[in-house]
Each structure stands twice: as structure tokens, then as C-alpha cells.
Write a structure and sequence with these properties.
This protein is α/β, with parallel strands linked by helices. 42% of the residues lie in helices and 16% in strands. The chain binds pyridoxal-5'-phosphate.
């Protein structure tokens, strides 16, 4: 079959597609040590909430039928949007209106729209790119651009910390924002590293974006105020030059595909227009299910009191297991876990590539994600670091994560031993 340029763009094996296919197969088979993918945990207290919300909808006359049987407008469920506006204005003094908000089918689709709105070919013949000030950055961005040469990205500075930890920072000395930049984007907390850019870094990026007249897109999929999987202090940031992307997925509702974009009215309207063409309207079940949580503000308390502590405990536990299993046997470091569901492991000098390590782990029934997928815009850079890291998700049950860490330690040691014995021969 011959496809158009548009069709061909999606037909090479994109990292995000491989990741989601691995995830889907592992979830269906149920016998894999699933430390790949970004599926959130099934947190019993959250699941109980979702069940009660659904039961209440079922009991309310006509609510269930309306939820399933009516299209929303192109911006998404109006009651949810109003409740969200009230929540953000009351709690954070944001001063937004429903004209600033639009829902999408998962925030992933919002990135596809936003990146192609702000980058690619422009009517005046110019070409713009999305600036990623710090790589590694979210794998899901990599193949979103409909044009070529879509991202300009930068390597971070690295600060070494105690207990084998390190932290990436934006290298502001290197950052160049020319006329060919259409928007700046960061995920905060960052997928894959669990990094949380400091408030100071965010303020500097915000100032740079405004000075250059380009929007700052903040991917808040794990951020504050919900799901708030963020273990350090961080203030939510919004002004008319920022585009804040949120999601109900990591709260525990990934299959309801509900993304939320809060942006300048013009941007929100452009996204609603794309929604109209692509989907008629975004799906409304997630928005309807979460409506009462947003109206009551409980979405914030649950995120703070249930979701965040759940993941923080898991992160700390997984790091303790890493020390137990890897100890001093091989060179390893872990990015300081400040949020999200992942640990980012760095095996400096690893004799095989992270892609080869991924394959060896997969053969042993343990799925992780190879780090080389997270470096959009760095394709041509000779930087060994790109091939020395893996992302490990710690959202699954204890036994799975514990066993997965054992297998990873085993395989990394084996990789080193094989290379040393080759050298000795
Ligand atoms: C950083 C980041 N942004 C966006 C998304 C997209 O999430 P969703 O489309 O489920 O809202 C993910 C999913 O894993 C993510 O990790």
C-alpha cells in the first residue's frame, strides 16, 4: 500500500508507539515485569472514589444517559470547565474564564495540536521549531511534528548529589532563542527523569518566552494541583503567555482520555476548532466523572493526601531496592526523584547501549524504556549519555517492582562482566 507523506510519517516504528504496544501487550498477558510504560497505579482509595462517583451518576435521573448519549461542544463538557475555572481562580488566583479552557482526548493529542500550531511551515514561508530547553524530555513529543527538523533541544548541566543521585538543570548559558523558535515546552515533573524544574528555572523560562514573544507550554501531566505527583515544593504557574496542559490520566483515569488545556483565549479557541475537525467534540465521560471532585475541590485534597504520598513511598522504596541490588557492583546513578512515576537510571560507561539492555531485559520478561528515546532534537549529537540511561516505572505492585529491579541489576552486571571478559581475552 502506498501512503501519503502524512501517512508515512506515522509508519516508522516510533518510540511512543513501541512503548504503548509493549504496555498493552504486557497488561493483557499479565506475566511481564512491567517497569516500562506510564500506566498509573491502581490506588485503592482513588478507585473507591471513582466507583462512588460513577454510582452516584447512575443513581441520578438521566445523568448516565446524558453522559453517554450527548455530544459536548468543541471545547468539551461546559460544567466541568466552569468548575475547573472556579477551582483555579479560587485556589491560585489565576483569573481565567471558560474561554481560556479546552478539553482534548488525552493531553497527548493536545501536544500534537499545539506543536503543529506553533511550529512547522508558516504562511510567510518561514519555518519554526519547538524549543525543548532540557533533554531528556518526554518520548511522546518526539514524533508529533508534521514537518521535518521540528525540535531544537539542549543538553542539561548535571549536578552531582549524595547517595548516587544527580539532578539536571537547564543550561541557560547555552540556550539560544532565535526567530525560528515558535514555542518553548517543558514537562514538569519531567517524564522520564522525575526532575522538577525549580521555580527559579520556570520564572526564567517564562521571562525568556515573553521577551521573545513565544508561548511557554508547561506539560503538567504529573504536576500540581492534580495529580500532584510532585515531591518537592513547586508553585503552579499561569499567565496569558503560558499554555498549561493537564490531564486526568495520572490521577488514575488514563482510559478516559481526558486532557485539559488552559491558555490564552486565542489558543484555546484554535484548539477547540481543531477538536471540531478531528473529533467533533472531545469525549466527555472523564469530565463528567470528575465533575464533583473538581466542584468540591476534593481533587486537590485527594491528590495531596492520597496520590502524592502513595508515589513518594514507592519512589523511596524502589531506590532502597536499587542500593540493595546494585550496591557497589557497577557504576550507577539515579536522577533525584522529585515527582512523576519514574526513576531515571544512569549507567555511566555502560559497555552495551541502553537499547541493547532494553532488549536483554525484555527477553527476560522485564520491560523498561531505553533512554535513547527521550532525546528529541539531539539525534546528531555525539553524547554517550543518550545511550547510558533507562527509565524504570515504579507504579506497579511491590513484588513486580522488586523483582524487576533484581533482573535489571543482574543484566547490567552481566553486561559489564561480558565486556570485561572480552577485554581479558
Ligand atoms: C509528560 C507527559 N505528558 C503527557 C502525557 C500524555 O498523557 P495523556 O494523553 O494520558 O493525558 C504523558 C503520558 O504518559 C506524559 O508522561
Amino acid at each position: 500500500m502506498q501512503y501519503s507523506v502524512f501517512g508515512e510519517k506515522f509508519r516508522h516504528n516510533s518510540g511512543i508507539t513501541q512503548l504503548m504496544d509493549d504496555l498493552g501487550a504486557a497488561m493483557a498477558a499479565g506475566d511481564t515485569l512491567m517497569l516500562g510504560g506510564g500506566n498509573p497505579a491502581h490506588i485503592p482509595a482513588m478507585q473507591q472514589q471513582f466507583r462512588e462517583l460513577m454510582e452516584s451518576i447512575m443513581r441520578t435521573p438521566a445523568a448516565f444517559e446524558r453522559m453517554l448519549g450527548n455530544y459536548d461542544g468543541t471545547r468539551g463538557n461546559a460544567a466541568f470547565i466552569e468548575a475547573l475555572v472556579e477551582l483555579m481562580n479560587t485556589n491560585f488566583g489565576w483569573n481565567i474564564t471558560p474561554r481560556n479552557v479546552v478539553l482534548t482526548n488525552g493531553s497527548q493529542s493536545a501536544f500534537f495540536y499545539l506543536f503543529n500550531l506553533f511550529a512547522g511551515a508558516f504562511p510567510d514561508g518561514s519555518h519554526k521549531k519547538i524549543l525543548l530547553p532540557l533533554t531528556p524530555e518526554y518520548i511522546g513529543y518526539t514524533d508529533t511534528g508534521l514537518g521535518a527538523n521540528f525540535f531544537q533541544s539542549y543538553q542539561p548541566t548535571i549536578r552531582f548529589l549524595e547517595e548516587r543521585m544527580f539532578k539536571y538543570h537547564v543550561d541557560f548559558n547555552a540556550l539560544r532563542i532565535g526567530g525560528d523558535i515558535g514555542a518553548i515546552c517543558v514537562s514538569r515533573p519531567t517524564n522520564p527523569t522525575g526532575n522538577v524544574l525549580t521555580d527559579e528555572e520556570m520564572c526564567r523560562l517564562d521571562a525568556l518566552a515573553r521577551a521573545h514573544g513565544v508561548p511557554l507550554i508547561i506539560d503538567n501531566a504529573y504536576g500540581t494541583p492534580f495529580p500532584n505527583i510532585i515531591f518537592s515544593d513547586a508553585a503552579p504557574l499561569w499567565n496569558p503567555n503560558t499554555v498549561v496542559c493537564m490531564s486526568l490520566s495520572k490521577l488514575g483515569l488514563p482510559n478516559l482520555r481526558t486532557g485539559i488545556v488552559i491558555a490564552h483565549e486565542d489558543v484555546a479557541t484554535a484548539l477547540a476548532e481543531i477538536n471540531g475537525v478531528m473529533h467533533l467534540a472531545p469525549g466527555g465521560v472523564g469530565a463528567r466523572l470528575a465533575l464533583e471532585l473538581v466542584r468540591s475541590g476534593e481533587i486537590i485534597t485527594l491528590s495531596r493526601e492520597v496520590v502524592r504520598p502513595f508515589y513518594q513511598r514507592k519512589a523511596e522504596q524502589t531506590i532502597a531496592w536499587l542500593h540493595e541490588e546494585l550496591g557497589e557492583s557497577v557504576p550507577w546513578r539515579v536522577h533525584k526523584p522529585e515527582g512523576a512515576l519514574f526513576l531515571w537510571l544512569w549507567f555511566e560507561g555502560l559497555p552495551c547501549t541502553s537499547a541493547a539492555l532494553y532488549e536483554q531485559l525484555k527477553a527476560r520478561g522485564c520491560l523498561v524504556v531505553s533512554g535513547h528515546n527521550f532525546f528529541a532534537g539531539q539525534e546528531d549529537a555525539e553524547w554517550p549519555h543518550k545511550h547510558e540511561c533507562i527509565r524504570v516505572t515504579y507504579a506497579q505492585d511491590e513484588q513486580t517492582v522488586r523483582q524487576g529491579i533484581k533482573v535489571i541489576a543482574d543484566e547490567v552486571r552481566r553486561c559489564w562482566l561480558t565486556s570485561l571478559s572480552k577485554l581479558a581475552r
